[in-house]
Design goal:
Structural class: alpha/beta
Number of helices: 2
Largest sheet: 5 strands, mixed
Number of strands: 7
Helix content: 10-25%
Order of helices and strands: EEHEEEHEE
Distance between the termini: 57 Å
Strand order of the largest sheet: 1-2-3-5-4
Shape: elongated
Length: about 130
């Protein structure tokens, strides 16, 4: 609505499900911390909604960290961190030289009160070694 090309955050109602979408999130820099980050954000959002007497979204999508993580049903709100759309950029190579970007997407299928999140992940080939 209103001709906006992008938003800091987007709150939608899709077939009765409240969906909150935003770009930035905090995950931590290590691969083994990724799964916990989605559960921690879900817990924080649930706590804050309770404290503020606010409506809790059903599903939350975040991306900026470019790693796939899902809180599943650990809390009343489900949080999904999305992978990147592209290979690692110059910036990523500068801050995490050995990181391999997760590339993919998540599709939200809603049918009334039931929903499913389909995760799509592209796995690039392994590292190539060169004898010098």
């Amino acid at each position: 609505k209103g001709g906006a090309s992008s938003w800091w955050s987007l709150n939608l109602k899709v077939e009765g499900r409240r969906v909150a979408i935003a770009h930035h999130a905090s995950m931590g820099g290590q691969p083994w911390t990724s799964p916990d980050a989605a559960r921690k954000l879900a817990a924080r959002l649930q706590f804050e909604a309770s404290q503020n007497e606010d409506v809790l979204p059903d599903i939350v999508f975040r991306s900026h960290v470019h790693q796939l993580a899902d809180s599943y049903d650990a809390h009343r709100v489900r949080v999904v961190f999305l992978p990147a759309w592209t290979f690692a950029t110059e910036y990523v190579h500068r801050i995490a030289p050995d990181a391999i970007a997760q590339i993919g997407a998540a599709l939200l299928h809603v049918d009334g009160r039931r929903y499913e999140i389909e995760k799509i992940e592209y796995k690039p080939g392994g590292r190539k070694w060169q004898v010098l």
